[in-house]
Specification:
Elements lengths: L1 E9 L8 E3 L2 E4 L3 E2 L12 E5 H14 L22 E4 L11 E4 L3 E8 L8 H6 L4 H4 L1 E7 L1 E3 L4 E5 L7
Parallel strand pairs: 5-6
Antiparallel strand pairs: 1-2, 1-6, 1-11, 3-4, 3-10, 5-9, 7-8, 7-11, 8-9
Length: 165
């Protein structure tokens, strides 16, 4: 299964949408350098498919709401709006089993570590629409091999290899 990176996103604060940038640097046991969520653990990098964002837009269109804006005036239903670091295309992320490896470009390897998340305080998207796809369709990964990730990098789903532990 192959896909591609649509957007790479960072934020300096937690609990806000992330801003698309031209590239990000991933490090093992650290995640995305310069991101508020950087650090060890199983949620080093967050991923969401652009197809999930498009489904969320359909919810908005069906609701008849004129538009959804974040507190700073930017559109929420865009890459980074769900606070994901990597927005992908062509991969059904939430169906990829935990432990599966993703190779991004020539060097970066991520390992899926968590599918979905608990939302203790609902985000602005949930408050505006009554629903948010990130808790169901967003995934998290650990950085196995770091490197630079840019939009349009290819993403390949690979088998889990226990030899890297």
């Amino acid at each position: 299964m192959k896909g591609r990176i649509v957007s790479v996103n960072v934020s300096l604060k937690k609990h806000v949408p992330k801003t698309p940038v031209s590239e990000i640097e991933l490090r093992p046991d650290a995640g995305v350098l310069g991101d508020a969520h950087a650090g060890p653990g199983i949620r080093q990098v967050s991923l969401l498919a652009v197809e999930s964002i498009e489904r969320q837009k359909q919810v908005l269109l069906k609701s008849g709401s004129p538009g959804v804006s974040c507190p700073k005036g930017g559109e929420l239903l865009v890459p980074g709006g769900f606070a994901e670091n990597l927005t992908t295309q062509g991969l059904a992320l939430s169906t990829i089993p935990i432990g599966t490896r993703l190779r991004i470009g020539d060097a970066v390897i991520l390992e899926i570590s968590k599918i979905g998340k608990e939302c203790h305080q609902h985000c602005a998207i949930f408050h505006a629409l009554g629903d948010c796809v990130m808790p169901r369709e967003g995934v998290f990964a650990r950085v196995i091999r770091g490197g630079t990730v840019r939009p349009d990098d290819e993403v390949n789903v690979e088998e889990h290899s226990s030899s890297d532990h």
